[in-house]
Amino acid sequence: MAQWQTLSDRINNVAPSATLAVDSKAKAMKAAGIDVVGFGAGEPNFPTPAPIVAAAAEAVQDPRNYRYTPTPGLPELREAIAAKTLRDSGYEVTADQVVVTNGGKQAVYSTFQVLLNDGDEVIIPTPYWTSYPEAVKLAGGVPVTVFAGGERGFEPDLDALEAARTERTKAIIITSPNNPTGAVWSADTIERIGRWAIEHHIWIVSDEIYEHLNYDGARTTYVGAAVPECRDQLIVLNGVAKTYAMPGWRVGWMVAPAPVAKAVAKLQGHMTSNVANVSQRAALAAVSGPLDDVYRMREAFDARRKAIVAALNAIDGVVCPTPTGAFYAFADVRALLGRPIGPDGVVCEDSSALAAALLDQAHVAAVPGEAFGAPGYLRFSYALADDQLAEGMRRFKEWAA
Length: 401
Prior knowledge:
Elements: H1 9-12, H2 18-31, E1 37-38, H3 50-60, H4 75-89, E2 98-101, H5 103-115, E3 121-126, H6 131-138, E4 142-147, H7 158-164, E5 169-175, H8 187-200, E6 203-207, H9 223-226, E7 234-239, E8 252-255, H10 258-271, H11 277-288, H12 292-313, E9 328-332, E10 340-341, E11 346-347, H13 351-362, E12 364-365, E13 367-368, E14 377-381, H14 386-400
Parallel strand pairs: 1-12, 3-4, 3-5, 5-6, 6-7
Antiparallel strand pairs: 2-8, 7-8, 9-14, 10-11, 13-14
């Protein structure tokens, strides 16, 4: 390749999304006629609730939605998100602190674009969502991972976070309920991180997109409510994809101090302008409406959670802690590595190879722990139909026997 044809170092240093890669391969196999059970993507299998769809259908007929609208979001949607923050998180924000984005991923990307200079460090408790370190790198930052394993309930240790802090530390990411582990961090952990961040002048980036998906009495602790003093250095990321079964509508948002929100809107003005208006009208119906449909979906997720944890722990060589949030089971499969497995006696040296063999031979798609900074684990999304869940677990057990 000629020098002028080479791509930027920025993009060459970024890994593809592993979760989307697994999902894409599974879908390609299905398109080829192979019966694949997909536990890869975190995508609720429920239809978007009917009142939300009705609001979108009405919006399609409204000429107001055929035009450009304000870059940071429809004013009424921003007001509704501010009201939803008070309702759910327990503290007041204003509409000028809200920026509506094209899905939660754009909110993550934009956050680090406006916060980081080259070489700034972001502490990322690990296991982490696969896009966090890549978004940091795209902004010229340095991801600093701090691992907490199953023996700690995947909950970060403040001493370990402090050991990772340097003079270049600019931000820390909080994700509870957590993707990929399904862990809900304790109120004490959230509060201690908030006060530590205040002490050391560190931005807190709190991803709260799974806030309503809690089980067994676990509750989401909102750092902005638990530690009010941190709000001047707090950026909250959220969206409609998980709570309202709306991943394809592509509406996320951030709530941030007004100067940060203004900077993100400036960036978005040069990237995408406003989010699609019909999707914004649907999101308005979602965030301003009741949570009844959300709770019904949560009940179904809860039943699947119990079923998949029991099934995984019944497989010799697999250990799966019981998650109390989101819709993921994060299984320790280290005992399956380095020994013959499957009908062909394949030997997998890491969980990436194990996930590939499981997909190729048993036609079960799961995401390897390497995607989340946690080699030796597999993530299974249980946001799929009950019969598919049971069939996938049957195949995995039979294959691993």
